[in-house]
Recover the amino acids of this structure.
């Protein structure tokens, strides 16, 4: 696991410009998606999902850039995160908190841990520039624990950093649940 | 419905498991507790304009909280007076009228029946005004918080809240304009009885154990001791924080004596902390910025207003019983009207901390409790802490103060629960 977790969490980079950037991201998806990028994105998304299903949280955390964001909004699509709470609005530092927290061994809702299986499909990709591309995809996540299977379903939005035409790191991962306006059980599962 | 046996279930430092597991008791609670006393329904800021509404429940009763054109607030039963169909399906919106989709009866948002299609067949004595929507007959507010009851014999809201009003004021008065705004809540469920979160509401005994994960994480990430769990003392019984029982089952846990001077510097680092603080300094200067950020965290108190309303941190928390073993908990983030936008944004990021890393461990413990309480042959839970070793004192107003680790708040709400479940009651839909 990343040694960054144990000490010296870095200051947040979330400022007014960052919020503005988040508001502008969806506009990128206005045109038709780029079919050429789909295969490399699918490979990245499957790898990411696999890390989470195998509970390799440290390796998953290491996929995020220093200005990366893991975001699970609630409420209306139009809600501005500066004026609304999210299930998770984790900048790099708080995501580090989350992983360190999961690894304490004292998160009782993960004792015993949930066995999860993520499925991803309907992947659409848009190139922003040579270093950045964005995808939307559909996901379902089954989480089995202590005799009960919880189902989470929705849409992922990923903003990924590109190197040599391939996605390498996560600048933003947003998971939009279809039932985010009703009460949810055990939200400690990373989507 | 079978009348459940209620005498002797609480008292003498114990409570019977059936409080948490018995379906007949639960059904009776939905009628008598969530109907027979003042229950929080909604906040002014959720229906700010004329014709705004939100749909809610009072126990299981569907209601619509509306603001009619003249600004008056109404709590109408969401039930057509013709055959009972619910009139409004949306969680919130703006509408002057509610039209029934079944036979087209129409009602204005003050409850008046204004249209009955093809009325001739009802005969000449038909009078629409006898078909007005039924309403929660008593609806009152304090500082924008609306409460309703179906009990004509309940005291006034003012008397019901009693000393709790002062703490509501402390929470709201932090806003420069003297009002707050509630926003879309963080909604969670746990598979356990609604009273399990009540037992926990003023329980200063559990943090060192139930919240070990967040304490360890803080220690690993940000250093410092884990003694926060003990409120700054080796033994939590000796800490400086205290509980007060405020009457009618309400309690207040004052964390401020254990928190030091600055609430802001005690808050765990949140997303946007440094850039947004720098933005405040640039705009207002160092001294004013450090004053303003003190508005971002909660005021350092936990207020509970029985049976469904808590103030925790900078949030309004509403507890809704769904089934005997299923409870929804809504955490409404709040912004302070008149505060700088940056401060209100920081309030969102602070509000995301505790439900994520703290409350979930309590919820898991509630689910484990619910499982343990299923054993019919083991009937009692222990609520005796502080009963024999009484370290409480009572002031001239009758407010009782105890160490935070004492079960006094739990025993106080159990007494109020027992009173509501057994007292003579004539509930009415006005
Ligand atoms: S039930 Fe509403 S009009 Fe008939
Ligand atoms: Fe707790």
């Amino acid at each position: 696991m990343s040694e960054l977790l144990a000490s010296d969490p870095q200051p947040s980079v979330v400022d007014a410009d960052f919020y503005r950037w988040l508001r502008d991201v969806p506009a990128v998806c206005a045109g038709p998606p780029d079919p050429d990028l789909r295969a490399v994105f699918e490979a990245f998304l499957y790898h990411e999902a696999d890390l989470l299903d195998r509970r390799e949280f440290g390796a998953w955390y290491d996929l995020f850039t220093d200005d990366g964001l893991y975001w699970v909004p609630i409420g209306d699509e139009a809600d501005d995160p500066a004026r609304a709470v999210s299930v998770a609005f984790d900048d790099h530092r708080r995501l580090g908190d989350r992983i360190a927290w999961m690894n304490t061994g004292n998160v009782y809702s993960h004792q015993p841990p949930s066995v999860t299986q993520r499925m991803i499909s309907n992947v659409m990709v848009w190139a922003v520039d040579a270093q950045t591309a964005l995808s939307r995809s559909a996901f379902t996540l089954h989480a089995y624990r202590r005799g009960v299977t919880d189902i989470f379903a929705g849409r992922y939005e990923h903003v990924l950093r590109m190197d040599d035409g391939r996605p390498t790191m996560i600048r933003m991962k947003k998971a939009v649940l279809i039932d985010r306006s009703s009460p949810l059980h055990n939200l400690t599962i990373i989507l | 419905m079978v009348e459940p046996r209620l005498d002797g279930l609480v008292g003498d430092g114990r409570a019977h498991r059936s409080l948490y597991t018995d379906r007949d008791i639960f059904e009776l609670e939905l009628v008598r507790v969530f109907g027979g006393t003042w229950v929080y329904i909604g906040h002014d800021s959720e229906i700010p304009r004329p014709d705004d509404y939100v749909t809610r429940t009072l126990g299981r009763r569907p209601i619509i909280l509306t603001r009619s054109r003249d600004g008056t607030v109404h709590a109408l039963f969401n039930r057509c007076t013709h055959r009972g169909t619910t009139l409004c399906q949306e969680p919130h919106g703006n509408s002057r009228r509610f039209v029934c989709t079944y036979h087209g009866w129409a009602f204005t948002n003050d409850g008046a029946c204004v249209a009955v299609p093809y009325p001739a067949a009802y005969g000449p004595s038909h009078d629409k005004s006898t078909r007005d929507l039924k309403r929660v007959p008593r609806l009152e507010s304090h500082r924008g918080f609306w409460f309703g009851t179906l009990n004509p014999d309940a005291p006034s809201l003012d008397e019901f809240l009693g000393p709790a009003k002062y703490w509501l004021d402390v929470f709201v008065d932090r806003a420069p304009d003297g009002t707050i705004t509630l926003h879309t809540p963080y909604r969670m469920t746990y598979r356990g009885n609604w009273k399990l979160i009540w037992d926990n509401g003023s329980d200063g005994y559990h943090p060192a154990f139930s919240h070990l994960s967040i304490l360890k994480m803080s220690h690993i990430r940000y250093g410092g001791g884990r003694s926060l769990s003990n409120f700054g003392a080796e033994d939590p019984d000796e800490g400086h924080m205290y509980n007060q029982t405020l009457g009618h089952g309400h309690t207040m846990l004052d964390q401020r004596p254990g928190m030091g001077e600055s609430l802001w510097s005690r808050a765990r680092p949140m997303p946007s902390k440094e850039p947004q603080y720098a933005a405040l300094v640039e705009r207002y200067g160092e001294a004013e910025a450090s004053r303003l950020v003190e508005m971002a965290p909660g005021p350092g108190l936990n207020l509970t207003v029985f049976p469904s309303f808590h103030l925790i941190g900078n949030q309004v928390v509403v507890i809704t019983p769904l089934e005997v073993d299923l409870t929804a908990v809504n955490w409404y983030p709040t912004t302070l009207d008149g505060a700088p936008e940056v401060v209100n944004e920081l309030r969102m990021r602070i509000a995301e901390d505790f439900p994520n890393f703290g409350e979930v461990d309590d919820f898991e413990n509630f689910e484990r409790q619910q499982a343990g309480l299923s054993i019919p042959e083991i009937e009692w839970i222990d609520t005796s802490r502080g009963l024999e070793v009484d370290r409480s004192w009572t002031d001239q107003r009758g407010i009782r103060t105890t160490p935070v680790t004492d079960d006094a708040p739990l025993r106080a709400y159990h007494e109020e629960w027992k009173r509501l479940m057994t007292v003579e009651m004539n509930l009415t839909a006005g």
Remarks:
- The longest strand of chain A covers residues 148-163.
- Residues 25 and 156 of chain A are 13 Å apart (CA to CA).
- Residues B 200, 206-207, 210-211, 362 surround fe (ii) ion (ligand 2) (CB under 6 Å).
